[in-house]
Design goal:
Layout (H helix, E strand, L loop, with lengths): L2 E7 L6 E8 L3 H15 L9 E2 L6 H16 L17 H15 L2 H4 L4 H18 L8 E5 L7 E2 L16 E4 L8 H6 L11 E2 L3 E5 L7 H15 L14 E5 L5 H7 L5 E7 L1
Antiparallel strand pairs: 1-2, 1-10, 2-9, 3-4, 4-8, 5-7, 6-8, 6-9
Helix pairs in contact: 2-5, 3-5
Length: 277
């Protein structure tokens, strides 16, 4: 049985909490586990603070951190990369304008040339804070956790990998991280965003644990989604070829309740690490 352990500490690092996930038995989970092994053996560090859900968020603190990170990024080069100021009670449309500014920096060679680690880290922080702010409007019991390494290695998705993508969500399952600059197909469709969705074509050792409840898409939903992709964006939606959703990697092992994970993570949110058992 392939099992990985996620571990966190309290703020002072004195006490810890962990839980295990069992990986599914398929060819992709095995490839992903090898990518994870590479990062763990290389001593790669997981980013902190990647908790998404109203239960984890402080709106004023997110806005403060976002402004602070933008000031750092705007000091780079000619400056003025971010023009829209974060504020409390932002609408989704307003937040997506900030996200569009973030995406524009990804597309600017003049901005990227010679980029320092400090600027890059603050850019990543801005993107993370945007997505954390999004979750404030979610139901109180819904949350997920991202496990993303700093500067991970990229791998191409192969043709057979696309058959494993699913738009359905199972509570307590571990899924492959998006690892792509832009918005996913499901986010763009569900939120009626003006941005063109970016199809995932690579993967990293990142993952996300979804504890948002089960969500089984209806045939009507999938029909509308495929039509929307084709008619609005000119993206041909081929069965087993178009990455709709995420690839399932595994699920929480029996013996620990979702409610316990949620309760413990109120305290244990620091120094995340992964161990391959």
């Amino acid at each position: 049985m392939n099992v990985i352990r996620f571990k966190f500490t309290d703020r002072n690092g004195d006490n810890s909490f962990s839980f295990d996930c069992e990986l599914f038995k398929n060819s992709f989970s095995e490839k992903w586990r090898k990518a994870l092994e590479f990062e763990v053996r290389a001593g790669s560090q997981l980013r902190e603070g990647l908790f998404f859900g109203a239960v984890f968020q402080n709106e004023e603190e997110i806005v403060r951190l976002m402004k602070q990170a933008m000031a750092v990024v705007n000091s780079w080069g000619r400056g003025g990369w971010f023009q829209i100021t974060p504020k409390v009670d932002m609408s989704l449309a307003y937040l997506m304008q900030i996200h569009e500014e973030y995406e524009q920096t990804e597309r600017m060679p003049a901005f990227r040339e010679g980029l320092t680690d400090k600027i890059q880290n603050n850019l990543l922080l801005i993107n993370e804070l945007i997505h954390r702010y999004e979750t404030i409007a979610r139901k109180p019991n819904e949350f997920h956790i991202n496990f993303i390494f700093n500067k991970p290695r990229n791998y191409p998705l192969l043709e057979e990998d696309f058959q494993l993508f699913t738009p359905h969500i199972n509570d307590g399952w571990l899924y492959l991280d998006y690892a792509t600059t832009g918005v996913t197909v499901l986010d763009a469709f569900n939120k009626n965003l003006p941005q063109r969705p970016v199809l995932q074509s690579t993967y990293q050792a990142g993952s996300k644990l979804l504890l948002d409840g089960d969500c089984q898409r209806t045939p009507e939903y999938l029909f509308e989604l495929r039509n929307w992709l084709t008619e609005r964006w000119g993206i041909s939606c081929q069965e087993g070829r178009t990455p709709l959703g995420y690839i399932p990697l595994g699920r929480i092992c029996q013996g620990i309740k979702r409610s316990e994970i949620k309760e413990q993570l109120q305290t244990y949110q620091y120094n995340p690490s992964i161990e391959i058992l």
